[in-house]
Amino acid sequence: MAHIFDKIGHLLGNPYIIHSLIVPFITEKCLLPEKRAKFFEALTTFLDDWELNHFVDELFHTVALISYCCIYSNQPTQKIQLLQLAIDMLADPKFSDIIVNSPLFGHRFMLFLHFKGPDGQLLSSVVPHAWWPGNEEHKESFDSATKNIYGAIKQVEAMFAKMLDILISGRHLKKFLAYLNEFIQQILAVAVSLSNLRNIPIHQQAFMSNLFLAISRSLAENTTHMSASKVFIKPAYYTTKNMQSDFSDLPRVGGNHGHLRKEHKEYLSNLEQGDVDDMSHILNNTALLFHLGVYRRLLSADLFCREMTDHAAHLKAVQEKIKNCPPDEKEVLEDLKQCEAVLEKDTITTSRMTAWIKTVILSENRMNDIIWMLRTLLRSVDVVEDAAFYFMPEFYMMAILNMYRALQECFPQKALIRHRQAPALFRELAHFFAKHICNPLIKSIDVKDHILQSSVIFVNYPQTLQALERLPEADCGNFMSSIVANYSKANYVHLSRMLIRFWKGHGFAYRDPPEYYNKRHEVLLPGVLAGTAMYMSVYEIEPTFSQISEPL
């Protein structure tokens, strides 16, 4: 065999030969892992180092390009074969060294985490019959099509996670983190600032979404043997000088990072300077990915799905007009029918795209990824003590709030409520809101306002409101006293909505008759009444109760 490779070794790096012969040979003839391993071993044994380096580099590049061009089908065999080939190459020590050390590794890696969705005629074949509310004719066929999409996508997403698992659990972790830092820096340069995220291109939002999925799923699987309480971002990661994440200039909860280092110089001097915590580094960057691109992608997907409902409503309205149109109004009838044809076409198209979006972008698996990361971030914020809170990156708070908003607004309510982690998640969120609503340690007005807005949403749903009601007495008292104490300082519109909700009898046990009142209710009652009195004084409304108690 050596003499064969001696003759053809220098040809194996030719892109045309790799694309036309090598890739089909590996994906079609070397399907079994042992056969593929023997082929890789033969290449490593008989090729010179320069020939092997050139071949592996070109092979990975070609596989990435072919993978990028794969368009979705119900049987994504080619995509899965190419991803498996990439995984096998990364799993091989010699091959992975060549791949990861290439200056183009980041670009090629991005190509793998891209999956082109169907459009036009292909979309019609994937979802043969459209369905929308009020049109029950093809619902069974529509549901069957979404199940087929889900089955295919589930396989591809599993391959994404497997690829990330190799990169973050092996010896190439530092190289991968360096690439991830560089990518995020590029995104930040495009966005200009964290408050101007509209500039991020859609294709990069899609990549960040798939990268977030792959990392969070890989981490979730790799930490199953650990206690959940141990999986969080350590405060030492962002307080000590060892934080080498290249994001030290991002806003912190307590303000500007440079100013905080001067103000809390004594506190920082007492901290131990240990090694950088790689787990914290990955979690930090994953949260930043969500904040930069994933949340906006979820909102866009949800908005598109709502458009289908609007199209269906307009179509139904036009059909009603056609039904009620007098027969002698021929011109009006003709215009209405033309309008109906346009709306029906648009509704069918958006219905098919909605099937894809809900199954791929707003799927239950994606919801699981967000819940896992949200609970991890909630733990990360909850463990922070003393001056470390000032140094915590501001986007941790924003990511928590946006993850909660995404779960509450973009995914089906029934799926969230019935989720096995829902009780624990709602309890942890309730604790977060009780602790940080109107928190004076938070300097950013935007963050404070987002916490208030999210709190209003939180108390408006029975299950989440119940979680707030069931908090320990001290947390409930802190929640109410914070609202009342800050009524004149904060956005009183949001605070008023919460107080009036409680006052009207929709929260904090006011659904119960008086005989069920206990000590908990007696503790909460003064805060509710005092806050309501403040609200009434603003609008010059006379109270209807006889006595106003002092705030907690």
Instruction: Say how many strands there are.
Output: 0
Uncertain residue segments: 505-525, 538-552
Radius of gyration: 28 Å
Mean pLDDT across all residues, rounded? 83
User: How does the helix and strand content classify structurally?
Assistant: mainly alpha
Order of helices and strands: HHHHHHHHHHHHHHHHHHHHHHHHHH
Strand count, sense and barrel status of the largest sheet are: none
The helix fraction, in percent, is over 70%
Strand content: under 5%
Shape: flat
Number of helices: 26
Distance between the termini: 85 Å
Model description:
By secondary structure, the protein is an all-alpha fold. 70% of the residues lie in helices and 0% in strands.
Topology diagram in text:
Blueprint: H1 2-8, H2 15-29, H3 33-46, H4 49-69, H5 77-91, H6 93-100, H7 105-112, H8 120-126, H9 139-169, H10 173-191, H11 202-222, H12 235-239, H13 257-263, H14 265-269, H15 278-324, H16 330-360, H17 364-382, H18 388-391, H19 394-409, H20 413-417, H21 422-436, H22 445-459, H23 462-469, H24 473-485, H25 492-503, H26 519-539
Helix pairs in contact: 2-4, 4-5, 4-7, 5-9, 9-11, 9-16, 10-15, 11-15, 11-17, 15-16, 15-19, 17-19, 17-21, 19-22, 21-23, 21-24, 22-25, 24-26, 25-26
